[in-house]
Amino acid sequence: MNIHGTSGFRTLLTRAVVAIAPVTLAVLGISGVTASTASALPISNLQSECRQANGQWVVEYSTNSTGIRYVSGYECWYRDINGDQYVDLYDRKGNYQGTG
C-alpha cells in the first residue's frame, strides 16, 4: 500500500479494465462500428489523388432492369515504382473495396 492507501483499488481497477477491453473491442468489431461509411473520402478527392499519382480514373457503370444506367463504382489504375500495375477499387459512395 502506498501513502495514499489506494494501491489495492488501483490494482483492482486495472485488472477490471484489462479484462473488459478485449470484450468491448470484439463487440464493436462484430457490430460494424469500426467500419463506418462516414470515413469515405469525397469522389473528387479520390479522383484528384489518383491523377496526382499519374493514375487513370475510371467510372464504372451498370444498367438496371429498366435500362437505366447508373454509377456502380470507381477504379484508379496506377503503376508502382517498379512499374507493376495495380487498381484500387471503390464502391459508388467512395468506400475503398480493395486493390487488385
Give your account of this protein's structure:
The protein is an alpha+beta fold and 100 residues long. It folds into two domains: 1-35; 38-99, Chitinase A, domain 3, CATH 3.10.50. The chain is built from two helices and four strands; from the N terminus they run ααββββ. The chain is elongated, with a radius of gyration of 24 Å. It starts with 6 loop residues before the first helix and ends with a strand. Residues 1-14 and 16-36 have low confidence and may be disordered.
List key phrases describing it.
100 residues; alpha+beta; Chitinase A, domain 3; 2 domains; four-stranded antiparallel sheet; 2 helices; 35% helix; 30% strand; elongated; disordered N terminus
